[in-house]
Design goal:
Helix 8 runs parallel beside helix 13 and helix 14 crosses helix 15. The longest helix has 20 residues. The chain has 2 domains: 131 residues, Orthogonal Bundle (DNA polymerase, domain 1), CATH 1.10.150; 191 residues, Orthogonal Bundle (hpI Integrase, Chain A), CATH 1.10.443. By secondary structure, it is mainly α. One of its GO terms (biological process) is DNA recombination. GO terms for molecular function: DNA binding. It comes from Solihabitans fulvus.
Length: 349
């Protein structure tokens, strides 16, 4: 009897032109399928500001090409074709790597878009075209740790040229001591400074927040900078002399100027992120992987596998590494421990 009922159901579905798979995979939709122009606007309002900033150029490109199409129309092949178009028309710079990064970011932007479409039950996961297109394989980074002598050169030129050497020297010191990203420095506020314990609160990508030890020297200059340039407690700390908050463009101008005075900076396309590599390499070599990971602010969810659960370093260990790095005693590091270690990375800076 049961077989007969199943056969009758199959017959009815066939008459209706519906396959059993469609009943399982097809989401129930009570509203019209939005176009890319409509849906990108909605998703842009829903994602964090960091994601919006990263994806917006690629969403604009998608709008230019597919703006009036429904988001369920493109196929995986069309996604691949669009990625290749973006790759071919990318702006060629000195550090260009053939447009691989642009193609990767386009696919990531589409995956973000389609994740929301699946969650909104506009399409099923099986119908997500971006998920079935592989991202270009990432090439190994050309960044590396800078030798001590090069680090000294950077600081000497930054502190003796330009229209605001005090600001530029502070930027280099901040990034070298904390290994923070550019966004972390730009998000720093006076209320993020704990002068008593020499800690700064860093808010970086992925909405991560952590307290990072700094030297007494850096803390003193951060406080003075905030007071002299009119930074209020809840506002951006780093500012120009006229009180206007700096933006990422200050970094661009800084490295362009350093490149004019130091040809190796321009040739190798040195940037702020090289300072992060420099500091974290030194910390890893001197104190091991666990301390370097904590110093970097990595949460361990995607690196080193399950072993990272057992090798987490605490704030005191990071403070000890910072003390040796700068050659200054830190309130959270034991003095006896500091003197066991060798020469500081910043001894000449």
């Amino acid at each position: 009897m049961k077989d007969a009922e199943i056969e009758a159901a199959r017959f009815l579905l066939a008459r209706l032109g519906i396959s059993p798979e469609q009943l399982l995979d097809e989401p129930v939709r009570n509203r019209p399928m939005p176009t890319f122009s409509q849906y990108i606007s909605s998703v842009s309002d829903a994602v964090p500001s960091g994601s919006r900033h990263a994806y917006e150029p690629y969403w604009r490109r998608v709008e230019e090409v597919w703006g009036e199409r429904g988001i369920d129309e493109p196929t995986p092949l069309e996604v691949e074709q669009l990625a290749e178009q973006v790759k071919l028309h990318v702006v060629v710079r000195k550090n260009s790597r053939g447009g691989r990064s642009a193609a990767e970011h386009l696919i990531a932007a589409l995956r973000c878009l389609y994740r929301h479409a699946v969650a909104d039950e506009l399409i099923s996961e099986a119908d997500n075209p971006a998920a079935r297109v592989a991202k270009p394989r990432r090439l190994a980074s050309t960044r590396r740790a800078l030798p001590d002598a090069r680090l000294v050169e950077l600081n000497e030129v930054a502190g003796s040229t330009g229209n605001d050497p005090e600001l530029d020297s502070l930027l280099l010191r901040l990034h070298t001591e904390t290994a923070c990203r550019r966004g972390g420095a730009l998000a720093l506020r006076p209320c993020d400074l704990d002068s008593e314990q020499c800690l700064v609160r860093l808010r970086e990508k992925g909405e991560t927040v952590r307290w990072q030890p700094v030297s007494g020297t850096l803390m003193k200059h951060l406080v003075i900078h905030a007071e002299e340039r009119g930074s209020r407690p809840g506002e951006q700390l780093l500012r120009y002399r006229n009180g206007r908050p700096i933006t990422a463009r200050r970094y661009d101008h800084l490295w362009a100027r350093l490149g004019k005075h130091l040809p190796w900076v321009a040739t190798q396309q040195i940037s702020t992120h090289w300072l992060r590599h420099t500091t974290l390499t030194w910390v890893e070599r001197s104190f091991g992987y666990a301390v370097a990971r904590a110093f970097a602010g990595h949460n361990g969810k995607s690196d080193a596998g399950s072993t990272s659960t057992y090798i987490r370093a605490d704030l005191q260990e990071v403070a000890l590494a910072l003390s040796v790095l700068t050659g200054e005693q830190h309130p959270l590091a034991m003095s006896a421990e500091v003197h066991r270690w060798g020469s500081p990375l910043l001894r000449n800076v």
